[in-house]
What we know:
alpha+beta, Helix Hairpins, 547 residues, 5-stranded mixed β-sheet, 17% strand, 5-stranded antiparallel β-sheet, 11 helices, Heat Shock Protein 90
Amino acid sequence: MKRLKIAEQIIIVLVFAVLIPFITIGIIISNISQHSVRNELANNTSLMAEFVADAIENYVTLSQAQLNQMASGFNYIPDVMAKIQYFDEIEAKTKLFKNLDIIEKNKIPKEKYPHENGKITLISPIDKEGNYFLSAKINVNIIDSLFDQDSLKGRKIYIFNSQNHDLIASNTIEENSNILDDLVIRDGVKKIIFGKKKNTPKAYYKLNNPDWFIVADTTKKVTKNTITCARYKIILSLCLAALFIFVMIGIYTYYLYINIRQLFKGITAISKGNYDKKIHLIKSPFTPNETVFIAKEFNYMANKIKTSYKDLKENNLKLQKLNEFRENLVNATSHEFRTPLTSIIGYSSRLLRHDIKVDDETRINSLIIIKQQAQRLSKMVEDLLVIPELESYSLKFNIEETDLSAAISRACEYLKNDNVEFNIDIAQDLNYIYSDEYRLEQIIVNLIDNAVKYSLDNEPIDIVAYNNENKCPILIIKNRCEKISDEILEKIFEKFIRADSNLTRTTRGTGLGLYIVKGLCEGLKIDIDLKCDDEFIMILKFNDCVK
C-alpha cells in the first residue's frame, strides 16, 4: 500500500474531520432555522389575516351601527325635501355612506352585505313593520388604508366572499387565481396552508359578519429577508469558519512540512556520509517544541558522528600508515640486516676455522670488515629505536655547549673508507653551539652517509662549515648525483623514501635516515634546507642554537 505524505494525510483528515462535519452541521442548522422561521412566518401570517379580519368586521359593524342610527331618526324628518337634504348632509359630512336610498322589502338583496363595483350595500329597517329599509353603500377601498400599516407591508392580503369567491379587496395587483388554487376553503375559522412552496405559508380567516374570508400570503421578498438570508448567513458563517480552520491548519502544515523536509534532508545526508549537514528549522509560533528538540538532538548527533567519523578516519589512516611502516620496516630490515649479518657470520667463520691458516693481514682485514658491518647494524638499530620517540614527541635531549667542528670530524672519521674522498673545509673560528652532542653527531652521520650512498663514482663529498654574518654556524654537505625526480624531492624527508625505487635499488639503507634527521633537527631547533640540481646539497643552519 502506498504511504501518503503528511500534507496528503492532513488534507484527508481535514476533509473527514472538518469539511464533512461542517457540511452536515450546516445542512442541519439551515433546515432547523428554515423550519423555525417558516413556522414563525406561518404564525405571523395567521395573525395578519386575523388582524385584517377584525379590522374589517369592526369597520362593517361600525358602519352598520351608524346606518341603524340614521334609520331610527329618519321617521322624525317632516317632509321629503328635508329627508333628501338630510341624505346629502350625511354623505357630505361623513364621507362614509354613498347612494343613500329608501327601498321596499321586496327589493332587499338575498346576499347579506352585497358588493358591486367596489362598494358594499348596507340595509337598515326604517319602520317597525319592516316594509321599508334605508339602503347605503360604503366604499370597500376604505379597507385599503389597513394595508398601508407597517405591520402588513410585504404581505399580500386578499378579501373574498364565501359564495362565488369573488375578490372584494386586495393590496396587490396580481391575480388571485394562484392563491385560490392552494386554498381549500373549509368551515373552520382559521387555516394555515403551505402550498407548492413551503417557505411561503398562507393563512385564511373566516368572517361571520360579513360572510367573507381573509387570505394572507407570504411574499418572496419576505421569504428572502427571513429564510433565504438566514440560510445564506449560516452557510457563509460556516464557510468562513471552515476557511479560517483550513488557513490556520494550512499555515501550520506548511511550516511543519518544511521542517520535516529539513529532517528528511538531514537524515538522507547522514545516510550518504555527509556528516556536515545541519538542520536549520523555520522557527515560528507554528513550530512545535518537539520538532525543535528533534532538530537540536539531530544536529548534536550529527556533530558527534562527524567527530567520531573523523577520529575513526584518522585512526584508520594511522593504522594504515602503521601497517605500511611495519611492512616497509620488515622489508627494509630483512634486506638491510641480512647483508652485514652475512658478512659478519662469513668472516667470523673464516677466522674460526682451524683447517686454514690465516695470516695477520687477512685477520686484520676481516676484523675491520666485521667492525664496519657491526657499526652498520648498530646505526640501523639506532635509527629504528629513535623513530618511536620522535613520533611520540618523547625524545629527551641533553642540551649543552657543543663543538660543532669536532662533531663533524668524528662523523667523517666514522664513515671514512677507501672508496670515498671527503673535502672538508671547516672554519677555524667556527662558533660553539648549544645542542645535544650525541644527537647532533647522529644528524651529521646520517647526512654524510646519505651523500656517500648516492654520490657518483669517484666524486668527492664536500663538507663546509663557517659562520654567517650573524656569527651563526652553517654546515653544508654537498655531493654530485644523478637527477632526482620532483616527486621524490617533495617527500625526501618522509619514512622509507629512497632516491632509487624498490625494484632498481642500488644502494644500502632503510630509507629512514633523512626522516630521522628532520625529526632531530626540529627537536634541536636546527633549520634544514635542501637544494638539488646537478648536486645534492644539504644545509644546516644553527641560528637558534647560539646564545
